[in-house]
Q: What sequence folds into this?
């Protein structure tokens, strides 16, 4: 079992939170849902890092950048940072590390010299083709306790959250999509 870095269980954290904010006029189901989402995401990230990525010398962020570049067959740096949910400054350091390992290359845009495109090297592509099935096997372990129906419901619910936030960020109504 993966234990979160703060070493407090979900139940302990919820009890402590309730003791501190229980008297406030809050939407407790929303707080519990978002808190559980956050903790679940961190637990999954830690588990996948410890079981798959670390032994291949990758951080979570390094893997996400490789994955983004891989699935889009190359991407401009600002889009890579946005897709990986990291700053451009963080991306610069990650790309330097991946480039030094021979996994990624930078290429100045032919249409705008201010822009830099990222591409996987042959070695980076080979790593992702080897690594992603292992990563997916670990993902499967993470959700193994869910029924097929529960997994579909969870996926639908999480996609709904993402879609709603994307709509809020873009100023559109999610129902329009």
A:
């Amino acid at each position: 079992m993966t234990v979160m870095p703060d070493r407090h269980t979900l139940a302990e954290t919820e009890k402590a939170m309730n003791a501190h904010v229980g008297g406030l006029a809050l939407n407790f189901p929303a707080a519990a849902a978002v808190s559980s989402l956050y903790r679940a995401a961190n637990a999954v990230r830690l588990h996948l890092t410890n079981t798959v990525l670390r032994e291949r010398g990758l951080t979570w962020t390094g893997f996400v950048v490789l994955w983004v570049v891989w699935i889009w067959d190359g991407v401009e740096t600002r889009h890579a940072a946005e897709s990986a949910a990291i700053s451009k400054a963080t991306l610069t350091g990650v790309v330097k590390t991946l480039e030094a390992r021979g996994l990624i290359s930078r290429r100045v845009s032919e249409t705008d010299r201010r822009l830099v495109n990222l591409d996987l090297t042959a070695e980076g592509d080979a790593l992702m083709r080897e690594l992603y099935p292992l990563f997916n096997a670990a993902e499967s372990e993470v959700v193994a306790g869910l029924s097929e129906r529960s997994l579909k419901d969870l996926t639908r619910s999480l996609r709904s959250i993402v879609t709603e936030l994307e709509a809020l960020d873009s100023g559109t109504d999610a129902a329009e999509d």
